């Protein structure tokens, strides 16, 4: 019954989002739902312009469960990937281990998620070359050219009490808090931290967790949880993706404040015929360079080792 109830909630939320997108976006440029999925507390929707739908292919989805040793989906990730023209994109929606002291478990969750082979491997060599990172076959998240990772990553602020954090927020001293943010500290100090390969825009907004629902007050319950930047967006794709904005929004229906990011992504389209011509030209140039080096090496050997004159050595090869 609970699963049926949750499924109904997700369907209602999906339908509400569809109506919102239809109401907000220009009628001349409508969007349609490409994909929707849920995993316990995670929910992902991907909308695309109707005019771009035919340019999208190879849609696949996966999930990685990390709760209770990988048996339960209360923690983990929903992963969606597709190709836009000949550029591969992957979106990872995460909910990592909770708790002030669970940094290592959160880092382990990320490692398991990013190192899992969750998609079918691409068999076509040309497609692997055109759409995925060098050596990748599309089975792993980091094989994709563009990756966006977001969600409740649950990283907290270390070595500071709740009241000290609250005073720093009230005084606008976010730099002091960010210097102790567990995610940023892990990126600076842990060479094996998997998010070192990702970029996060500088944070200029207050911590997004934990609020009394319906108010602007940080947690006043008995647990008195410390404020933290639990909700994050990071991305990967050098030279192919640029973030334009990173902000939180003042919605009070949850104990979190939602965050959004606005991106420009550069995609490519590969011409098979032009690629074939260029490949042939490159192969020919490589062979000429290889032959030249071999000839020069032979001449040098005949001259320096066997004592033959330069002119005679050149005539022999």
Low-pLDDT runs of 5+ residues are: 1-5
Provide mean pLDDT, rounded: 92
Order of helices and strands: HEEEEEHHEHHHEEEHH
Shape: elongated
Compute the gyration radius: what is it? 26 Å
Number of helices: 8
The N- to C-terminal Cα distance equals 84 Å
The main pleated sheet reads as:
5 strands, mixed
- Could you say which structural class the secondary elements and strand pairing correspond to? alpha+beta
- In terms of DSSP E residues, the strand content is 15-25%
Range of helix content: 25-40%
Cross-sheet strand order for the largest sheet: 3-4-5-6-7
Record field, number of beta strands: 9
Overview of the molecule:
There is one protein chain. The chain is of the alpha+beta class. It is 33% helix and 25% strand. The protein has eight helices and nine strands. It has helices at 2-24, 103-114, 125-131, 162-170, 174-178, 182-189, 272-304, 310-316, and strands spanning 31-39, 42-49, 56-67, 72-84, 87-95, 146-152, 231-236, 241-248, 259-265. Strand 1 and strand 2 (42-49) form a beta hairpin. The longest helix has 33 residues, at 272-304. The protein is elongated, with a radius of gyration of 26 Å. The model is unreliable at 1-5 (pLDDT under 50).
């Amino acid at each position: 019954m609970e699963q049926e109830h949750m499924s109904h909630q997700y369907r209602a939320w999906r339908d509400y989002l569809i109506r919102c997108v239809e109401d907000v976006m220009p009628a001349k440029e409508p969007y349609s739902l490409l994909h929707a999925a849920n995993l316990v507390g995670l929910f992902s929707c991907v909308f695309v312009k109707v005019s771009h739908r035919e340019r999208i292919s190879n849609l696949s989805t996966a999930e990685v469960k990390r709760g209770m040793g990988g048996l339960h989906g209360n923690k983990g990730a929903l992963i969606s990937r597709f190709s836009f023209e000949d550029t591969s994109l992957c979106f990872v929606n995460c909910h990592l281990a909770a708790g002030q002291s669970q940094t290592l478990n959160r880092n382990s969750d990320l490692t398991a998620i990013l190192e899992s082979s969750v998609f079918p491997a691409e068999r076509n060599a040309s497609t692997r070359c055109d759409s995925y990172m060098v050596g990748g076959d599309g089975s792993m998240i980091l094989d994709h050219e563009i990756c966006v990772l977001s969600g409740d990553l649950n990283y907290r602020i270390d070595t500071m009490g709740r009241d000290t954090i609250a005073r720093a927020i009230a005084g606008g001293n976010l730099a002091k808090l960010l210097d102790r943010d567990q995610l940023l500290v892990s990126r600076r100090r842990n060479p094996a931290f998997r998010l070192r390969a990702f970029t996060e825009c500088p944070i200029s907004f207050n911590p997004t967790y934990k609020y009394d629902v319906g108010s602007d007050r940080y947690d006043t319950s008995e647990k008195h949880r410390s404020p933290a930047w639990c909700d994050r967006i990071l991305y990967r794709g050098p030279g192919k993706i640029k973030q334009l904005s990173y902000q939180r929004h003042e919605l009070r229906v949850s104990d979190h404040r939602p965050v959004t990011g606005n991106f420009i992504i550069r995609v490519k389209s590969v011409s098979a015929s032009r690629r074939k011509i260029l490949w042939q030209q490159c192969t020919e140039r490589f062979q000429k360079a290889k032959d030249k080096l071999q000839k020069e090496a032979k001449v040098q050997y005949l001259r320096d080792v066997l004592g033959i004159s330069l002119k005679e050595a050149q005539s022999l090869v």
